[in-house]
Amino acid sequence: MKIALTIAGSDSGGGAGLQADLKTFHQFGVFGTSVVTAVTAQNTVGVRAWQGLPPELVTRQIDALADDLPPLAVKSGMLGSAELVEAVAEGIARRRLPRYVLDPVMVATSGDRLLERAAERLIAERLVPLATLVTPNLDEAAILVGDRVTAPDDMERAGRALLKLGAQAALVKGGHLPREEEGEGDEIVDVLVMDGAVRRFTHTRLDTTSTHGTGCTLSAAIAAGLAHGRPLERAVEDALDFVHRAIAAAPGLGHGHGPLNHFVPAPPRPPTDGL
User: Fold this and answer.
1) Average of per-residue pLDDT values in the chain
2) Which of 9, 46, 168, 183 is the most exposed place for a label (fewest CB within 10 A)?
3) pLDDT band at 180 (very low <50, low <70, confident <90, very high)
């Protein structure tokens, strides 16, 4: 059985963070392990409080898993502080954890900050060079590359800039792109940049507030695909499809930005990468 690891914060509401990642791993047929970086008190309305774990404990978690349950792919989400970014970067590099998907979580869907400002540049300097893939949204991409990202062409330039920073590939997510004129044809564009190649994925924009945990779910789904040995572009395509269907089938829970439906089936695995 393939193993995938999530390094992220705990979401008490169950829609994002470690909880979303482990649900996604399960749907994709991989065994999920976890390194807890922070505990949050949150629901669909917002984040009421959060507390990062001691960096030494995060390091011990990474070592415990690498010694006994080594993952075939890793993703990271909420890290919270500069000290935790350093601890995770050191652990990934020292234990040579493979197929690393970096979701540079900075702000929750509710608008609440989940990363100290002092740690923003450290993510670009320490984690991006370790990443097989980095998956920023528009705001995160702008912070990481130091430039505005407001349109698909900007997304492509930001992706190329992230490769120059050391990432093997970048998926710049377009969920926050401005809406087109109301009516049919309003689409979301996600831009994948890798090794000189660019691919734009398009999906119909869904009129919903059930978007809590989309970034976590997407990066976890990509990591699961990589754990199965899928090529990166295929893993990204499968993950985007899964997230789009999970949003469309959202159960409508809570009074704010509700969770996705992690019960939707994952794309089928070819016989060569089955369990």
Assistant:
1) 92
2) 183
3) low
Would the pLDDT of 12 be above 90?
Answer: yes
Q: How confident is the model at residue 275 (pLDDT cuts 50, 70, 90)?
A: very low
Backbone angles phi, psi at 36, to 5 degrees: -85, 125
Interacting residues of 5 by C-beta distance below 8 A, sequence separation 6+: 32, 33, 34, 35, 65, 71, 73, 74, 75, 97, 223
Q: What are phi and psi of 157, to 5 degrees?
A: -65, -40
100: which 2 tokens?
């690393």
Cα dist from 127 to 35, 153, 192, 253, whole Å: 16, 25, 18, 34
Non-local CB neighbours of 17 within 8 Å, separated by 6+ positions: 8, 9, 10, 11, 40, 77, 78, 213, 216
Instruction: Return the percent helix, strand and coil in the chain, to nearest 5.
Output: 40, 20, 40
Q: What is the pLDDT at residue 175?
A: 85
Identify the domain containing residue 62 by its residue range.
3-273
How do 73-76 and 100-102 pair as beta strands? Answer: parallel
Share of the chain above pLDDT 90, in %: 82
Total count of domains within the chain: 1
The C-alpha atoms of residue 142 and residue 122 are separated, in whole angstroms, by 15
177 or 270, greater pLDDT = 177
**Residues involved in catalysis:** 173, 211, 213-216
Residue 258, domain CATH: 3.40.1190.20
Asked if 229 and 221 count as a contact pair (C-beta separation under 8 A), the reply is no
Dihedral sign for Cα 192, 153, 21, 99, please.
Answer: positive
CB distance 9 to 40 below 8 Å: yes
Give the HSE-up count for residue 172: Cα atoms under 13 Å, Cβ half-sphere: 31
Spatial CB neighbours of 200, under 8 Å, sequence gap ≥ 6: 152, 189, 190, 191, 192
